[in-house]
Structure to design on (760 residues):
């Protein structure tokens, strides 16, 4: 591994990854997920020297963060980052591959901050089948019969655990062992990504509160909260690590923006029409939650005053299954569903065309086609 | 300025500081405060290219963060960092001085995150005479008559603004224009500082909730929440930028820990005995807030069961002025006040002795003596 900007604390991450075969990793595969988790687990181990002097309370919080991160699913963002690196000619058998994979894994810590804080903001009680972090600490407070508000305690601890995740995301990047020149290319993209995702979350909150019902507003939230953060910037981060040229970066970013928005549009459709047995969420969940999606904005744009009133009355209400069915029929009849399906198809096509015309490696083009399929054609 | 790890975005910060005379800055002086604010203001200007594409909602949030940061007071942490750099021979007339001052200024963004999130956690309504960030956005929500909870909206926005401050703190460090070798020395200390302050805040919350009444527990919170974060690590950060040797770093860290704890102990005394006309806070404020300080822990350790019961009953209660006077008399009679004064004197002495025996420059030794005085002998 090249001489890094990091510290000896990172040694254990490099050591752990040195034992993993990185040459045939397919993003999303169990082997890829394992490799990312190896990087994350050894990073958490490297934090112990910092955490332990602060005593058991802090150790418990750091452990809660580690468990949350390790429970994380498909490692989508590291997968796109790794693919961006491969696309620009990154060599998984090369000396810098472990450092690159480690930097990709750091995206999972940014994501942990986003999710832990989002769960406070949305008052979500469970995630991935477990209590959310603020609920976990609320329950610990109750179990210990401490004085004061258990709810406020839970939120306070979760705010700080999210902050810790954000701070540690940077630490992992800077201790990944990247060469100084690679880190120099990485830093501004990393900065942009974090600003964009926080901006996207702020837009989302304001969209819900301020009631901007336009299609453009919903698309802008998709762009920054999902597309930029989940696909575009991860691909961009990987590409700059392999010193991609500007034309290839543009192509990957076009793919990332377009397929990323298409991914979110598919999510919007599943949130209303998805099969609960497949999605694991209640039928019509997004309607009951009152989400302001492109699907809803498009229906409002197309509908007359009466249709608009029916949609607005249903959003965020306690709906019966029959009422959910009625709203679904209305969205379909207005043509909003077809419109969103057409957007998904168009965006996927433009995204794939940009990559097809680029200098990305054939292997990466193949991966990106598969990833576009699973992002935009999934049932859950 | 040396070739940096940063991006062209930082150019405006460097340009702005190139016009400031850094050669005779005394930490805490108006000229020093101005120089830090110049770095911060030009950094915020450099973010606009990232912020503007996300639209007016995000621009408003970024503006709120900037106003919060620019209102910040004495720039204590950048002052200690600058002093650490001077102590190890940093040359304010040298080419790297603007980059160093910029990296020092980044501490104010970490502090902004800590304060914005702390104000949510403590449900504080005002700071520095202005509404806290969550209250500000709560009021904007009410003024706009948006649907939903104004309180939850305010907290949500403030959580994200705090996150933005933490992310931007890193961006400022990496765009400061530090030489790669300097950044390499800076990064692990920066990482440790952020972990420690978040750990200190977690200990503080748990101390209040979990009711550990020991002197050791209170001292540990002081160590990490205040001393490490306010003095020790800022000095350490500055010292490594000037490539200080390990013995000098040890001396500065000893000073930072000891004077930092003494600073907090003085704060604890002022929180109970301070003159409202000087401190700007209600008389006996810490008693009414129920703060678990070393002063209180020491009084509980010294008192019998009856004294302990009186103290515990008063903490966090709605106290009359006469009741505040009674508790003050009790703390004094138990010898807790003398004990804390003795700790302040002893810690200040050991901290100053460490620096006196070190290779710090005479000018820095002089500054550190003055700074110890104002940290530990103040009336507000």
């Amino acid at each position: 591994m090249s001489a890094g900007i990091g510290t000896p604390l990172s040694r254990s991450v490099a050591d752990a990854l040195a034992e993993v075969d990185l040459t045939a990793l397919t993003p999303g595969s169990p082997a890829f997920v394992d490799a990312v988790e190896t990087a994350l687990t050894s990073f958490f181990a490297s934090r112990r020297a910092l955490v332990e002097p602060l005593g058991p309370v802090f150790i418990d919080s750091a452990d809660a963060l580690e468990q949350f991160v390790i429970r994380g699913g498909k490692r989508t963002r590291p997968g796109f980052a790794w693919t961006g690196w491969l696309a620009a000619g990154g060599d998984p058998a090369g000396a810098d591959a472990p450092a690159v994979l480690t930097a990709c894994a750091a995206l999972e810590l940014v994501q942990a901050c986003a999710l832990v804080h989002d769960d406070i903001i949305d008052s979500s009680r469970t995630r991935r089948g477990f209590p959310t972090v603020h609920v976990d600490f609320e329950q610990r407070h109750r179990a210990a019969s401490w004085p004061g508000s258990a709810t406020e305690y839970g939120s306070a601890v979760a705010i700080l655990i999210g902050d810790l995740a954000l701070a540690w995301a940077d630490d992992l990047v800077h201790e990944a062992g990247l060469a100084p020149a690679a880190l120099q290319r990485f830093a501004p993209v990393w900065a942009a990504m974090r600003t964009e995702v926080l901006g996207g979350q702020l837009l989302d909150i304001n969209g819900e509160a301020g009631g901007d019902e336009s299609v453009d507003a919903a698309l802008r939230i998709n762009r920054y909260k999902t597309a930029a953060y989940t696909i575009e910037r991860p691909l961009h981060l990987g590409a700059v690590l392999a010193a991609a040229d500007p034309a290839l970066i543009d192509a990957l970013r076009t793919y990332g923006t377009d397929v990323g928005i298409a991914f979110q549009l598919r999510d919007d459709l599943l949130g209303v029409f998805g099969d609960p047995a497949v999605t694991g969420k209640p039928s019509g969940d997004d309607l009951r939650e009152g989400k302001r999606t492109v699907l809803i904005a498009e229906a409002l744009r197309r509908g007359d005053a009466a249709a608009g009133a029916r949609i607005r009355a249903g959003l965020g209400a306690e709906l019966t299954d029959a009422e959910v069915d009625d709203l679904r029929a209305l969205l379909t009849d207005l043509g909003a569903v077809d419109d969103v399906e057409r957007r998904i198809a168009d965006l996927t096509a433009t995204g794939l065309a940009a990559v097809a015309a680029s200098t990305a490696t054939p292997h990466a083009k193949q991966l990106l086609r598969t990833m576009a399929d699973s992002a935009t054609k999934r049932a859950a």
Notes: Confidence is low (pLDDT under 50) at residues 1-9 of chain A. Chain A has 18 helices and two strands.
